Structure formats: structure tokens, C-alpha cells
């Protein structure tokens, strides 16, 4: 019985150490590349162009200082994009979910004021707004470059900094 208690205590200590290590980092940076497919609907309305619809794909973390964003991780992403093109430029907003229910969800919000949602793209910012599981308490910001390709495809490169509150 004594050996069994020793093994249980050792396993509990190892689990606590692993949990502490996983949550010990309170801030960091990561770079990612995302690949998406979109199914946008476009309407022309009084000299302006409105575009909206789903943007689905994956994000791959290509470089990381650690924390919940592990280099090499592939994370599922689902967004809804709303844009308005007018004489003054572009107004694009995109709330997104990253992750899955089992591991946690990260809530984000992308904004872009220049470029296009057609072949081409543009630069914008992306806010990390917290989440569940491994992303609980995560906030931060990213700069990103969206490149729209033929065939309703989009590639996004981002540089991000984050902290856990």
C-alpha cells in the first residue's frame, strides 16, 4: 500500500508541475500563417460595395515565445467578415473563433481600413479578446497582412503579442 501511495503522490506532483509550467508564462509573442476559404456575398448599394460572409480555415503558429501558442500548432478558425467599400476606402470587421471546444476557444476581432476583399488584400489589426480553456484570460493584438487569391482563397500572415490577465 505504501508504494501505491508514493506513486499516486508522484503522479499528482507531476500533474501539478505540468499545469504550473503550462500556465506560468503570462505574456509572449507569436507569428502565424493562416489559410482560408471564403463564401462572400457582394451587393452594390448607392455607389458602395458591401461584402459579407463566412471565412473558414486554419492558422499555423510558425514561431512562438511559448505559452498557449505552440510553434507548429494548427488551429481551426471560423470568421464572419463584413466589409464596406466606399470613396473614402474600406471598412472591414471580422469576429473570429480559433480552436475547439475540447482545448479551448480564442475570441478575436479583425479590423482593416485599406485594401480590398478581392484579389489583392491589405494590412490590418487583429485583437485577441480572451477565450476558454487554454486561451482563458488571453488578450493582445496582432498586425496582419491579408492576401486574397483566385478561387475564393485567402492567406493571412500575422505578428502578435499577448498577455494573460
Q: How much of the sequence is in beta strands?
A: over 45%
Count of DSSP helices? 1
Whole-number tally of structural domains: 1
Main structural class: mainly beta
CATH architecture descriptor: Beta Barrel
- Number of beta strands: 9
Order of strands in the sheet with the most strands? Answer: 1-3-4-5-6-7-8-9
Looking at CATH, which topology would you report? AOC barrel-like
Shape: elongated
Helix content: 10-25%
The arrangement of helices and strands along the chain is HEEEEEEEEE
Largest sheet: 8 strands, antiparallel, barrel
- Mean pLDDT over all positions: 88
* Distance from first to last alpha carbon: 43 Å
Which secondary structure elements does this structure contain, and how are they paired or packed?
Layout: H1 2-24, E1 27-38, E2 41-45, E3 48-64, E4 74-86, E5 89-100, E6 104-112, E7 120-131, E8 138-149, E9 153-164
